[in-house]
Amino acid sequence: MVLNQIGNEYKGAAVDMRVLVTGANGYIGRHVIPELLSRGVKVTAVDLHCDAVDGRCDTIEADILSTGDGFYEKAGKPDACIHLAWRNSFEHNNESHTTDMEKHYRFLSGLVDDGLPQLMVMSTMHEVGYFEGAITEDTPTNPVTAYGIAKNALRKKMTDYCREKNCILQWIRGFYIVGDDEHNNSVFTRMVEASKTGSGPFPFTTGRNKFDFIGIDELAGQIAATIMQKEVCGIINCCSGIAVPLADEAERFLKERKMDIQLDYGKYPEREDASPAVWGDPTKIRKIMEADKGRKE
User: Fold this and answer.
1) How confident is the model at residue 7 (pLDDT cuts 50, 70, 90)?
2) Residue 16 vs residue 134, higher pLDDT
3) 288 burial via Cβ count (<10 Å: 0-12, 13-18, 19+)
4) How do residues 166-196 score in pLDDT, each as one tens digit?
5) Rounded distance, CA 215 to CA 240, Å?
6) I need a surface site. Which of 56, 171, 250, 256 has the fewest CB within 10 A?
7) What is the rounded distance in angstroms from the CA atom of residue 28 to the CA atom of residue 220?
8) Residues 6+ apart with CB under 8 A from 183
9) What does the chain look like in DSSP terms, one character per residue?
10) 147 counts as catalytic
11) Predicted pLDDT of residue 12
12) Into which CATH architecture does domain 9-178+213-240+282-296 fall?
C-alpha cells in the first residue's frame, strides 16, 4: 500500500485528514469515498475486494473480522474511521449478524486501543424496532430482527468503550435508502429488474405506509460532512426528516426513470412489523449540513 497525498482545499485551506473506510466496496462505501475525496480528505479503503473503489484512494484488501493486531498502524494511523462493513445487511434475520457482532467489537475496540481518536459506525433505524412517529436519539430501542439486535448491542458496547477511552463516537442511523438501485436490494431494485423482463403488473402492497426515504448520494454527503466535524456526536439520524407514502415514492421512481410498469396495489399485505409512519428527527444532521455548507462557501 502506498499512501497518497491528495491535497484539495476546503474552506480555503488544505484539509489534513485521513479517514479509514471499511466496507469500502459496498453499496454505501462506493458513494461515501468520492464525497470524502471531493472535500480534500485522504482515504484508506478496506474491503475483501476493492475493484469498485475510487482509484484516487489507498486500498487494503483484507477481512477485518479476522485481522490481527496492528491494523490501525497498517492503515496509516488515520484520524478517523467510518465503519460501513457488515455482511448480509439485506437479510435481516441472517444468523451471521449474531455471530459477527463480537468480531466487529473486537476490531473497533482494537482501533481505539491503538489510538483512533474518532469513530463513526453505520447503523440502522431497525435497531429501534417497531415505532410510530419521529425517531430521535432518545427513542427507546426494542429491535425485533437479528440485524437490529446485533447493531443495537454493538452500539451499547462501543458507546461505553469509547467513553472510557475518550474516543469520539458518531453512531449513524440510516433509514430507507434509495438510488443506485442496481446495487441495492429494495423493492425499487425489484422494479428495475421487472422493467427489464416486461413481466406484466408489478405486485405491490397498498403503498399507504409512510417512510423516511433518502437518496444514496445525499446520505453519502451527510456521512462525509459528519466525519469532518467533532462537535455533533452520539446518535445521528442520517435522514430526510419527512415521511412519504411508499406509493408516492414508487410512482415518483417510475416517472423519473420513465419505466412502463403498472403497480398492482394491494396484491401483498403490509408487513406485520411495518409502521404506518416512521421517520427520523433531522435536528442534528441539519446542524451538521449547515456547517458543511458554510465550510464550502
Assistant:
1) very low
2) 134
3) buried
4) 999 999 999 999 987 777 878 888 888 888 8
5) 9
6) 256
7) 7
8) 27, 30
9) --------EETTEE---EEEEETTTSTTHHHHHHHHHHTT-EEEEEES--TTS-TTSEEEE--TTT--S-HHHHTT--SEEEE---TTTT-TT-THHHHHHHHHHHHHHHHHHTT--EEEEEEEGGGT-S--EEE-TTSPP---SHHHHHHHHHHHHHHHHHHHHT-EEEEEEE-EEESSGGG--SHHHHHHHHHHHT-SSEE------EE-EEEHHHHHHHHHHHHT-SSS-EEEEES-S--EEHHHHHHHHHHHHT----EETTSSPPPTT--SBEEE--HHHHHHHHHHHHHH-
10) yes
11) 40
12) 3-Layer(aba) Sandwich (3.40)
Report how far residue 217's alpha carbon sits from residue 131's, in angstroms, rounded to the nearest whole number: 26
What are the Cα distances from residue 69, in Å, to 73, 108, 153? 9, 11, 23
Query: Is residue 87 scored above 80 in pLDDT?
Result: yes
What confidence category does residue 6 fall into, taking pLDDT thresholds of 50, 70 and 90? very low
Which region, left, alpha or beta, applies to residue 167 given φ > 0 means left and ψ of -120 to 50 means alpha? beta
**How would DSSP label each residue in 247-285?**
HHHHHHHHHHHT----EETTSSPPPTT--SBEEE--HHH
Report the C-alpha gap between 112 and 95 in whole angstroms: 27
Q: pTM of the full predicted structure?
A: 0.91
pLDDT of 294 reads 74
Options 105, 147, 161, 265, the catalytic residue: 147
Q: Answer positive or negative: Cα dihedral of 99, 100, 104, 107.
A: positive
